[in-house]
Amino acid sequence: MSISVKMAEQLNQQVANEFNAAYKYRAMSFCFADMGLKIFAKRFEQQADEERGHAMKIAKYIQDVNAKVELQAVAKPKHDYKSAKEIVEAALKSEETVTSQINALVALAAQENDYATRNFLEWFVEEQVEEVASMRELLQWVTMAGENNLFQLENRIAQSMS
Ligand code: FEO
Fold this sequence. Notes:
Elements: H1 5-34, H2 38-64, H3 84-111, H4 115-145, H5 150-161
The structure holds MU-OXO-diiron (FEO).
MU-OXO-diiron is lined by residues 18, 21, 51, 54, 95, 98, 131.
């Protein structure tokens, strides 16, 4: 194994974090669908798929460096959001949390002089900048539009997804 036991544990934890994020986004997507906001639902479904992709990318890296992937239980996500804004606020908070998790991994890689893992994590550092920015933008749109005008906002979201 070319990474430390601690790094393998922490990367496995991040696989679980990303699967949890995926599951959370899936639940948010169902909430949007319940509100009749189909484009929001699709946007969050896509995000769930991306998070699953992140989990798989880290899992593959763990295997590439000859460590063992150990999947963990996924937590039950919140399902009773009261408004679109509440969902997007929770999504932004979740992305900020993931950013901290990635930063902690980068710090561990630096501390251990683990250049391969540090290099691997660069993609995630950039991805988090983009994901936080895009969720912050969506929150601005939802706040400006107000809960009663979200159907009109859906066209704009559809454009941003294409
Ligand atoms: Fe994979 Fe959006 O964190």
